Amino acid sequence: MYIVKRGKLSVVGDDGKAVYATLGAGSVFGEVSILNIAGNKTGNRRTANVRSVGYSDLFCLSKDDLWDALTEYPEAKKSLMERGRQLLMKDGLLDEEGIKAAQEQQETMVEKVNRFESAIDTLNTRLARLLAEYSSAQQKVKQRLTRLERRLDFDSELTNPASPHLSPHYPASPSVCPSPFPLGA
Known about the structure:
Mean pLDDT: 80
Shape: elongated
Structural class: alpha+beta
Order of helices and strands: EEEEHHH
Strand content: 15-25%
Number of strands: 4
């Protein structure tokens, strides 16, 4: 796509003689070939010949740079696409069936996006539930482990002859496990 910085250019026919329009500073040309307009009978190839009338200075905007800019400015994209459609329509290069097919394809894309969004929402809900279940199970395992460690520590104290929990009335035998609380007290 080209933007005229200064100078004049003529839009000419294939013979190079018939002048259809004159472009001056601020004019744009070559946009139709990079806009990918649905229904374009030329297959997004150029639709006109441009010739400089004297010295001209132009800005060149690549397809990638244009699309990067248009994603930031959706209104400008809409305006440029409409202008491209009008140019193609004026020259009889716009296929109405192609436009309808593109619109139907766009609608099915919207439906797919909606389905994907719904599936993502469902997965997020399931993931949140699973994380909550995991957290709860992890907490229960930690509590059980803590109780087992305490019991193991207590049992090892009872089997240790130097343990203060052993009384002289009970022998330090692994087969006898006295209660930590005296009976009848």
